[in-house]
Amino acid sequence: MNYTLLGSLTSPYVRKIRLLLHGTPYELKVVNYMEEEGNDYLKSINPVNKLPVLIDGEKTILDSRVIFNYLSNKNKWIKLTIDEENILTAIDGAMDSAVNLFMLRRGGLDLNSGNGLVERHKARIPHILDYLTPWVRTLDDKNPAHWNFLTMSLYSLLYWYDFREVGSLKNHQDLKIFLEKFKNAPGVAETTIPT
């Protein structure tokens, strides 16, 4: 049975699931929620009204973390340790903040206006990137085991963060090196954001 993944070609949340599914038969159904038709369709499928959504037969799985857990249980993958769960939570936290900043900017909000929520998101990202750096230094792109959901998630975040110019990695050289080292990992070329 093939999966159907509802997503976009630009979302970092969708990309990490596409990377996870690399080599697995699935159909990517692109949903443009910025248009009324796509937004109405997404709301009819997902009450949270966000991407990605995985459809497996009669099952509809919402949110990238839940999709990962579903696939992990279904395929009997080794469970993440608490340390790995914490790393994934940190990556998702940075991704949430970065996407919120992008959407606020796209909606016309001045990100330099001193807004308390915006400032919290802006401060959160570099703090999380600092937290992730010691772990990133342990990764070896030559070790296939190091290309996993955590590194796929981090790659999706960092690539998108730079691509959308939400922030800068200039103070995080280890993360820039990570992007360079893993740019040829399985699925990366196939899931790169179209320009």
Explain the overall architecture.
- This protein is α+β, with helices and mostly antiparallel strands.
- The chain has two domains: 3-75, 3-Layer(aba) Sandwich (Glutaredoxin), CATH 3.40.30.10; 82-190, Glutathione S-transferase Yfyf (Class Pi), Chain A, domain 2 (Up-down Bundle), CATH 1.20.1050.10.
- 54% of the residues lie in helices and 9% in strands.
- It contains eight helices and four strands.
- It has a four-stranded mixed beta sheet with strand order 2-1-3-4, with helices on one face.
- α1 packs antiparallel against α6, α4 runs antiparallel to α5 (116-137) and α4 (82-106) packs parallel to α6 (149-163).
- The chain starts with a strand and ends with a helix.
- The mean pLDDT is 97.
Order of strands across the main sheet? 2-1-3-4
Please tally the β strands and state the result. 4
The assembly state of the depicted protein chains is single chain
> What level of helicity do the residues show?
40-55%
Number of helices: 8
Question: What's the gist of this structure?
Answer:
The chain is of the alpha+beta class and about 200 residues long.
